[in-house]
Structures are given as structure tokens and as C-alpha cells.
């Protein structure tokens, strides 16, 4: 039964994990520790395993926990997005984390741009303990999400798409935030993507529109 007094979240964070448990709690914790009203966003984890410690952590922190037998990255993200209530979707893989101001920044950009459909973060690197690595040549690094690379509007006629793609504006799933209404137009196709999901979502959703723009400066 739906609680009529319950606030519908503005943002849905979709976190996926497949056969990997080491960093999942860190990834989820980074979304819990956001400088953003917790009632305005939900956290959804899609994973192919059960674990008493992880599942307890998700339960006590109000995280929607979806068990999935799907293998492909596209099918896992799509499964999470199907159950999402927020219009702004932020993707996150289990070995990445968000900076504390990520959702606040993302929300402000989408709020100022009602026709925004795709937003891409900058990224840095961290070690296995979550410490920022200044030497990007370090071995076995993981990525930490920063904010403010580029965005895509739905009503412009800009021919920068291939240049943007070349410079990596499509790169890394955990850097990507999109409007759910745009994703659902191509949901069946994207659910079948087995690899390079970040590139596929960038190209499939927005090349037909020809609608690309450089990001605002914060």
C-alpha cells in the first residue's frame, strides 16, 4: 500500500555488483553520506549474491536490495532503473564511490536545466581504502567521482558529439546521470548491452538528437 504522505524521491542512485563484495559497502556508504536531503533520493542495489553482513547493512540503511540473476551490465542497470521512482538516475558501480557533494551538485544542474537529459562527472582515483591517489600512474587504483565535466540538452543542434566522445565524455558508468524518461525510450535495447555500457548509452540516446553542449562551470 502506498503511503500518500511519503515524499517521492527526486534522484535514484542505482548501484550494481556482480560476484564482488569487497567494496560494495563503501560504495553504498558514499551515497548515504551525501550532503543532500536523504528524503529526496533513494538508493537501489542490484546484485547477484546474498551476504548476511551486506544485506543487513542495506536493510538498516533503507536501501532497496534487488537480487538479480542477470549477467550483463545493461540488464542489471535496467533492472534497477525499472524499479526507480526518481526522474534523475545516477549510476554507480560497486568499486567506485561518490564525493559527498555529488548529488547536491547534480540536482542543482538538473534543476537549473529542465531540458537536461545527460550529465557526466569528472573523476579522480582512490586506493582500496578510499584514499585519494595523487599519482594517477599508481597500480590497482579505483575511481572516485567528482562533478562538472559536461552535459547534454535535449533541444540543441550541436555537432560536437564525436569530439566529445573522443575526449571521453561518455567514459565510466559511475560518472553518468540521466533522466529516466529519456532512458526508457531505449530501455529494451540498453538492457541487452553486455559491455561498454557507458559508450552505448551516450551514443544510442543522444546521437539521434544531435544535442550536445559543454558543461557549465561551478
Summarize this structure as a short list of keywords or feature phrases.
single chain, 218 residues, Spore Coat Polysaccharide Biosynthesis Protein SpsA, Chain A, eight-stranded mixed beta sheet, 22% strand
Record the SSE blueprint.
Elements: E1 11-17, H1 24-32, E2 41-47, H2 52-60, E3 64-67, H3 73-82, E4 88-93, E5 97-98, H4 102-112, E6 116-120, E7 123-126, E8 142-145, E9 150-153, H5 161-166, E10 176-179, H6 180-183, H7 187-190, H8 197-206, E11 213-214
Parallel strand pairs: 1-2, 1-4, 2-3, 5-8
Antiparallel strand pairs: 4-10, 6-9, 6-10, 7-8, 9-11
Written description of the protein model:
The protein has 218 residues and is α/β, with parallel strands linked by helices. The protein has one domain (11-211): Spore Coat Polysaccharide Biosynthesis Protein SpsA, Chain A. Helices cover 29% and strands 22% of the residues. It has eight helices and eleven strands. It has helices at 24-32, 52-60, 73-82, 102-112, 161-166, 180-183, 187-190, 197-206, and strands at 11-17, 41-47, 64-67, 88-93, 97-98, 116-120, 123-126, 142-145, 150-153, 176-179, 213-214. The strands form two sheets. Strands 3-2-1-4-10-6-9-11 form an eight-stranded mixed sheet, with helices on both faces. Helix 2 (52-60) links the parallel strand 2 and strand 3. It is globular, with a radius of gyration of 17 Å. Residues 135-151, 153-167 and 208-218 have low confidence and may be disordered.
Look at the structure and name the CATH superfamily: Spore Coat Polysaccharide Biosynthesis Protein SpsA, Chain A
Shape: globular
Side by side, the strands of the main sheet go 3-2-1-4-10-6-9-11
Based on CA atoms alone, the radius of gyration comes out at: 17 Å
CATH class: Alpha Beta
Whole-number average pLDDT?
78
Number of helices: 8
Instruction: Give the strand content.
Output: 15-25%
Could you say what the CATH architecture is? Alpha-Beta Complex
Q: What is the CATH topology assignment?
A: Spore Coat Polysaccharide Biosynthesis Protein SpsA, Chain A
**Would you tell me the structural class of the helices and strands?**
alpha/beta
Count up the domains.
Answer: 1
Low-pLDDT sequence parts? 135-151, 153-167, 208-218
How would a crystallographer describe the biggest sheet? 8 strands, mixed
| DSSP strand tally | 11
As a percent range, the share of helical residues equals: 25-40%
End-to-end gap: 41 Å
- The H/E string reads EHEHEHEEHEEEEHEHHHE
Amino acid at each position: 500500500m502506498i503511503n500518500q504522505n511519503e515524499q517521492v524521491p527526486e534522484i535514484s542512485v542505482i548501484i550494481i555488483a556482480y560476484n564482488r563484495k569487497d567494496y560494495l559497502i563503501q560504495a553504498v556508504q558514499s551515497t548515504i553520506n551525501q550532503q543532500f536531503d536523504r528524503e529526496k533520493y533513494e538508493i537501489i542495489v542490484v546484485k547477484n549474491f546474498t551476504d548476511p553482513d551486506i544485506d543487513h547493512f542495506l536493510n538498516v540503511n533503507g536501501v532497496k536490495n534487488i537480487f538479480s540473476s542477470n549477467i550483463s551490465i545493461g540488464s542489471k542497470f535496467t533492472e534497477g532503473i525499472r524499479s526507480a521512482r526518481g526522474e534523475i538516475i545516477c549510476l554507480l558501480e560497486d568499486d567506485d564511490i561518490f564525493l559527498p557533494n555529488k548529488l547536491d551538485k547534480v540536482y542543482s544542474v538538473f534543476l537549473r536545466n529542465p531540458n537536461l537529459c545527460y550529465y557526466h562527472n569528472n573523476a579522480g582515483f582512490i586506493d582500496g581504502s578510499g584514499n585519494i591517489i595523487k599519482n594517477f600512474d599508481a597500480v590497482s587504483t579505483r575511481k572516485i567521482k567528482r562533478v562538472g565535466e559536461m552535459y547534454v540538452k535535449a533541444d540543441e543542434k550541436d555537432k560536437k558529439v564525436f569530439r566529445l566522445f573522443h575526449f571521453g565524455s561518455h567514459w565510466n558508468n559511475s560518472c553518468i546521470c540521466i533522466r529516466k524518461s529519456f532512458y526508457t525510450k531505449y530501455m529494451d535495447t540498453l538492457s541487452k548491452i553486455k559491455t561498454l555500457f557507458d559508450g552505448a548509452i551516450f551514443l544510442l540516446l543522444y546521437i539521434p538528437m544531435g544535442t550536445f553542449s559543454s558543461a557549465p562551470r561551478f
